[in-house]
Amino acid sequence: MSPSVTVDTASDFTLPAKSTLQPQRTLLLSPPSLSSHPEKLNNVIESHDRNATDMQMLDRLSLGLVSLPESTYDLILVLTDADGTRKESQNLLSRDMLALLVKTLRPGGRLRSQDEQLGGSAGPERNEVILAGLVYEDGKGFCKPDYGAHVSVPLKLGKTKGVAQAAGGLNPTNGDSISLPLNSKWKSGDLANNAPAGVGFVDFSDDLSQPEVDSDDELIDEDTLLDENDLKRHIKIREYPLHFT
Q1: Where among 108, 143, 178 does a domain terminate?
Q2: Which pLDDT tens digit goes with each residue over 58-107?
Q3: Contacts of 128-134 spanning 24+ positions with Cβ under 8 A
Q4: Are 74 and 24 in contact (CB under 8 A)?
């Protein structure tokens, strides 16, 4: 009997599973007055993904009773008070609290309020959030900058066009600005060869170790300051009258 052979038709290559986008992690910050109005809290929670949404009470955070993980949330939403204002949240969002919220935001994450009025007008509230490290964007709330991204700095040319070209030898692409790489190195030779008009550079290759010494002819001889006639001149001493009382 001839031996039987079984052919394995299974593929030796398995395609990786398609990556699914992670849902946006959201942190809801509730003022103390909402704890006595569970129906309002439920209405807010139902509008978010329960698997990617956390909620904390502002008063417990301010007292340090709970802690927040770092670089976790894409959105922090400050809920409105039970009476429709933000008086409670404004009192509880201290400088230390804002620093804590900035740490728990991911790079590119946002801090907003439910009424969209957080930092909406210039004033102490907006200033405190900006000092905590966030950037205000009109209509979008506060954003945490992504400091790890590569950022090019636009340089307005105008009258400084020659200086920009001398610094890096770069020409503008649109006539208005150029982007200088922050990690580039400049050579002193390039600066000297492309120096704009009116800008000078010190040549350190000159031999400055032996400065020129003025001749003795330019020195003043103190013996010639007074001649013979001056020395023979009588010294007049002014007399002062004496007064007796």
Answers
A1: 143
A2: 999 999 899 999 999 999 999 999 898 999 999 999 999 999 999 999 99
A3: 128/93, 128/95, 128/98, 129/98, 131/95, 132/95, 132/98, 132/99, 132/101, 132/102, 133/99, 133/102, 134/102, 134/105
A4: yes
| Same domain, residue pair 126 and 50 | yes
Q: Tell me if the pTM is above 0.90.
A: no
96 and 63 both lie in a single domain: yes
Integer Rg of the chain from CA: 39
Please indicate, yes or no, if residue 200 is contained in any of the structural domains: no
Q: Which domain holds residue 175?
A: 153-193
3-state class (DSSP) for residue 73: strand
User: Is 161 in the same domain as 139?
Assistant: no
